[in-house]
Amino acid sequence: MKIKVVALTTLALLLPLVASSQTGPNSSATIPKGAKLFIAPMPDGFDTYIRAAIIKKNVPVEIVDDKSKAQYQVAGSSETQKAGAAKKILALDWRSTEEASIQVANLESGEVVFAYSVHLQSSNHGRQSSAESCAKHLKDHVH
Fold this sequence. Notes:
The chain is α/β, with parallel strands linked by helices and 143 residues long. The chain is 36% helix and 28% strand. The chain has a single domain, classed as Double Stranded RNA Binding Domain (2-Layer Sandwich). Helix 2 crosses helix 4 (127-141).
């Protein structure tokens, strides 16, 4: 019984730390509905995937092409690792491993109001899947 109490107490203490890791030090900062987002150019064209994912997931923001008209800027990166020969032969798995991260910063204050990182093992749709995961979690942060 004592072990259960210690485990539950530890979980209760660690849960807020995990939740705040997506929003940075100020977890009360949110992105308002209709906010204007500028998506910065990202390596390997990941910005194109993020733009499409934000539209597909119906994130209630407006994407602008001019940074001077934006309230927030989305920046990030992604990495793809194609399946190697061993994975293809032994696991019969041709899907890639995807890693991506984005952060959204308030352009006026410079504060990072949202950050998210994703790791997808054996991703069915490559960068599209990781971008959609980022957009899904961004949508949860827009109020």
